[in-house]
Amino acid sequence: MSTPFSQSRAWVEIDLPAIDRNVGRIKQALPRHVRYVAVVKADAYGHGMPEVARRLLQAGVDAFAVANVAEAIRLREVGHEGDTLLLSPTLPDEVARAAENGFDLTINSLEEVKAFAAWGSSHGRKVRVHVKVDTGMGRAGVWHECVREVFAQVLASPGLEWRGVYTHFSDADADTAYTSQQRRIFLDLLESIPAEVRAQLLIHADNSAGLESFSAAAPFNAVRIGLMQYGLPPSAGSFLASLKPDPVLSFHARVVLVKDLPKGTAVSYNRTKTLARDSRVAIVAVGYGDGVPTAASNRGVFLVRGQRCPILGRVTMDQTVVDVTDVPDAAVGDMATILGAQGADRITVAEFCAWSDCIPWEALCTLTQRVQRVYRTDRT
């Protein structure tokens, strides 16, 4: 089975029209006043930020969120001049670059309020900020019991332009009770912001999973969407799954060698697999240096000629051995599919994660730069 990308040893295909469809379905499901903030950090979850960001803009998203200044600069380079929120804390030596480019910085502490305000006042311009409230995530953000003082300081600082306030749910895809508790804490704290100020702020708490408990009656006027726009509902049983997002990414590699091995042969490092029969094996040019974790050793499968072929032995840096004994026509140059459809079968991200001991975000983000990105524009 030949592949149209025979120049590549390992590649991912990105279905750009699927992004259009996913964004359209999400926007249709949201109240009309709610702004769509597209999360494109970590190279757009491994999909390739420049191309994906351009497509998201065409699909009508309202703003972007990234992890840091360097990612935000990349968005500027692809032509995005609109709102860009930095979700992670900004280091002192990054403040000038972020503020000069008009990015929205996240405030996580009283010290950051003072530092950002001082820079703004000394440079005769306002630093755009969102205040992040830690309502139980225990990571970034101002701890909720201390945030009222931060609110007051932001209001009193002429060097700051307060543009938003937000929180982050730690277990939205699994624990609705805890998510509701976090939401209540956040809503109570919003009441301490003067109503005329609050009315001007972007108020957001929900990512793809948080939409499960999103309420149009609440003061929320924005959502941060990552996983869903890439075609993956945060949980299979959620109402979001009913939107039927289309998978955007598939992962493939080429067979570089096919050989016969006798029963009793130990395969790959540390001899974790011994052949129980005379076998025909295929060496596939992909490994943990590309994004196939060693946890998939002796557990996962690749699709070759539309058939499931078990991984034999330990996944190595550049190569993985699979059993093609039951695929007699397997040959050098064949396409092996690690994620996605081939023939009548499909390996889903959820299935890949089950045998790789990872979560969907991790499975996508750990596809390395060695893996070529190929962008499809012709699918409907």
Catalogue the unreliable spans: none
Structural class: alpha/beta
What is the strand tally? 20
Widest β-sheet, arrangement of strands: 11-14-17-16-15-18
Overview of the molecule:
- The protein is 27% helix and 26% strand.
- By secondary structure, the protein is α/β, with parallel strands linked by helices.
- The strands form four sheets. A six-stranded antiparallel beta barrel has the order 11-14-17-16-15-18. Strands 5, 6, 7, 8 and 9 form a five-stranded parallel β-sheet that branches. A four-stranded parallel β-sheet has the order 4-3-2-10.
- The chain is elongated.
SSE blueprint:
Layout: E1 10-15, H1 16-29, E2 35-39, H2 41-45, H3 49-59, E3 63-66, H4 69-77, E4 84-86, H5 95-100, E5 105-107, H6 110-123, E6 127-134, E7 142-143, H7 147-155, E8 160-167, H8 176-190, H9 195-198, E9 202-204, E10 222-225, E11 249-261, E12 266-267, E13 273-274, E14 279-284, E15 301-304, E16 307-312, E17 320-323, E18 335-342, E19 345-347, H10 349-356, H11 360-365, E20 372-376
Parallel strand pairs: 1-20, 2-3, 2-10, 3-4, 5-6, 6-7, 6-8, 8-9
Antiparallel strand pairs: 1-11, 11-14, 11-18, 12-13, 14-17, 15-16, 15-18, 16-17, 18-19
